[in-house]
Amino acid sequence: MRKIIIFCMILFVFIVGCEKATSPGIASKINGTVHDPSGNPVADAKILVNFNIDCDYPIGSKNGFLKNNFTVRDSVDPDPPIPPTSILGNYPNPFTNSTNIIFQLGSPCTISVWIEDNFYNEVKTILANQSCQAGHGQVVWNGKNNDNNNFQNGAYKVMLYAKDELFCDTLFVFKDYNDFTYDNITPLSTTSDAGRFTIFTQVLPLNYVGDQYDEEGCLVGDFTVTPYVDIWAFHQDYSPVHIDSVLIESGHDINVTLTFE
User: Among the ranges 97-101, 147-151, 230-234, which has the highest mean pLDDT value?
Assistant: First the structure.
């Protein structure tokens, strides 16, 4: 019996240790400083974090509006007698340029559709008090906010309001930061006069697992956001710079320095 108790205690410690190593909920920070080529601090640099994604299928990158395809969720009856109102999903997911958000309505009604960030802020209005017929419908989001600026990559919420009910689903933006410029992005953080910034890792979708849909709306597997991130700095006077594959460990603060060339 004593050996069994000791074994259980060791197993408990191991499990707790693993949980601490992988849980994104334990407080930690990314502390950074941005310098110019001479080593002086740079104020008003825009900071973004990019993610490394583990998936089996290439992430979709087609431009523009994709063809209608309402087979996004295999578990949904394509022609139910009285279809329940719901968000069926989006494709492609993750997406790099645009994604089709598919929904169904149980009866004709007025709906609103918008995108929220991780702080529950409405960042993009897609439909506002739009009259729609019953059945399937779709809207397209290009991953930009109401000011037409690019967002930080990551998980966002698509919200559907219909007949006094609120529906929610998650989609994942994965754009190429090489296409971003200082003037067309909304940053995750901005450097102070001392060139410093801080990012709390709880707002990052580390270890997030989601369904992956291709450009035709077919489920091709799932994807996982790894704990390795790339940190980018943008400034109107310099070309963007970044640091690759920074490991984020729960409960451990990270200190980085980025230097413009």
Answer: 230-234
What is the structure's pLDDT at 73?
52
pLDDT score of 68 more than 60: no
- Please return the burial class of 106, using the count of CB atoms within 10 Å of its CB with bins 0-12, 13-18 and 19+: middle
pLDDT value at residue 27? 77
Q: Is the CB of residue 24 less than 8 Å from the CB of residue 202?
A: yes
Residues 160 and 168: their CA atoms lie apart, in Å, by 6
Rounded distance, CA 35 to CA 81, Å? 62
Q: Model pTM?
A: 0.80
Tokens of 214: 């291709």
Pair type for strands 86-91 and 99-105: antiparallel
Fold for 27-259, please state it: Immunoglobulin-like (2.60.40)
Domain spans of the chain, in order of start: 27-259
